[in-house]
Design brief:
The protein is α/β, with parallel strands linked by helices. The chain contains eleven helices and six strands.
């Protein structure tokens, strides 16, 4: 399900997905229509613009929160034209599983879009790497990130994007056990809880990066 008040954007995303073999259950141009269609169609994932009519502030995020609360089987991928982590992270903190946040410019790379939808459908969290890079680059007084090695920072960014240990290992051409060791070391250095829930570990890292 695709929700965006700009018809060109909706149609563009729909065409890309259909050409990639992804079924588009429907489209909506405002939040109430989206919620009605989600209730009727029960799609695997809803793609939702953060800013929708009538005020173009947070209608999309509010609709996404309702979808994750009322239809737990439906994942949500929220889109933004700008780097606006506050709105999206508000949604992630409440519903980390089956939730993603990408910049709009990213969705017209069909491989990135389909990969995000697949991961969300499998219960993962997906965060745009541009958002992660911006958060990592923030300067802090007595920055604990200075304690990390270059490789540990690379792993940290991939964890924050919602990547599993296996996916990180593939991206960095190392073994799963090497990534696991890096993750443990990172969480120890940053005094973060290393719980087994992969989505919660994403939230722990994002919370740290925002602080």
């Amino acid at each position: 399900m695709i929700a965006d008040d700009a018809m060109i954007t909706r149609e563009g995303i729909a065409r890309l997905l259909e050409e990639a073999g992804v079924e588009v259950a429907g489209q909506a141009e405002e939040a109430s229509g989206l919620l009605h269609r989600v209730a009727r169609e029960q799609p695997d994932v809803a793609i939702v613009d953060i800013k929708m009519p009538p005020t173009h502030t947070d209608e999309g995020i509010v609709a996404a929160q309702r979808i994750r609360s009322e239809f737990p089987g439906v994942g949500v991928l929220v889109l933004s034209s700008y780097v606006e982590p506050t709105y999206a992270l508000r949604l992630l903190e409440e519903h980390p599983a089956k939730t993603g946040y990408l910049l709009k410019e990213r969705v017209f790379d069909v491989a990135v879009l389909v990969d995000a939808l697949r991961r969300i459908g499998e219960g993962e969290t997906v965060i745009d790497p541009t958002i992660v890079a911006r958060l990592v680059a923030r300067r802090r007084l007595h920055d604990p990130l200075d304690e990390l090695t270059k490789r540990e920072r690379e792993v940290l960014e991939l964890v924050a994007e919602g990547r599993s240990n296996h996916a990180i290992a593939q991206a960095l051409f190392v073994t799963d056990s090497t990534v696991e060791a890096h993750v443990k070391q990172i969480f120890t250095k940053l005094s973060l809880d290393t719980g087994p829930d992969s989505n919660r570990r994403v939230l722990a890292v994002l919370a740290f990066l925002r602080s």
